Amino acid sequence: MKIDDLKLKINPFTWVFILLLIITGFYIELINIILTVAIHEISHYYVAKKLNVNMIQVEIFPFGGAAIFESEIFIRPDLEIVIALAGPLSNLVFIMILVILSEVTSISFDYLIKINVLMCAFNLLPGVPLDGGRALKAILSSFIGITRANNVAVKFSYVISFLLIYSGILMIINGNKNYVLIITAIFLIISAKKERKLSAYFNLRDLAYKKEEFYKKGCMNVKQIAVLENQKLIKIINCFLPLKYHIIVVLDKNLREKKRLTETELFDFAVSNGLYLTIGDILNKLK
């Protein structure tokens, strides 16, 4: 399904979730959930558009959606935080509007308010692809690098999923046959695994963005990294920080400078020879 220039994809498990609600007769609840998710995702899309970030696809889950941006565009950490938090903020604004409408019209919007509170609170949890996890990843990436920051957020996702499954099992044991928590946990685990697989591409997207910015501005902040010859490319690349161009200073066993390599050169070798090549191997190829 395509809306304007945005492709809308419904995750197969979401259809299962919808079917369960229909079978159990929760029609009004389903409409409320659809409305809440729609407001949440439209807010992400609108803010991304305003920030000139092209969102090309949203995969819809019961707890929200996972956005995919154009592969050549790297989202700066500050922009990613703003786009991520736009969803939960929209739910908060909607809650305030519903409270005001309830006071003015005496119509009860209790369930819709509850769904929006849950949507907002759940999406602020620090696991990917939840908005809180994306914000956490963006913040951490400036200190420990994009790949390692993403892996931290993925681990949080697994912890959250375990707690959801545990809570769901307790509810079933106590006679409340509500499988929503367990289904949500499964969604989260699957999505987190996808995010982990994408980790290897984040630094490549970052380099593409930095090249574009470099050519546009003609200058960029530089960070130097000192490495020994036995270090593998993957370990060095995982140390790269966003919005900084890296110069790699190769040291010999006596910690004396032997060679300087640029971030671009390292990525070129990674693409042609793999991520497990050592710096020593690269120096041998350059001879």
UniProtKB/TrEMBL annotation:
Its cofactor is Zn(2+). One of its GO terms (molecular function) is hydrolase activity. It is a multi-pass membrane protein. Signal peptide: none annotated. Residues 30-102, 109-163 form the Peptidase M50 domain. The chain crosses the membrane at residues 12-39, 51-69, 81-101, 113-131, 152-173, 179-195. Keywords: Hydrolase, Membrane, Metal-binding, Metalloprotease, Protease, Transmembrane, Transmembrane helix, Zinc. InterPro entries: Peptidase_M50 (IPR008915). It is found in: Membrane. Belongs to the peptidase M50B family. This is Stage IV sporulation protein FB. It comes from Thermoanaerobacterium butyriciformans.
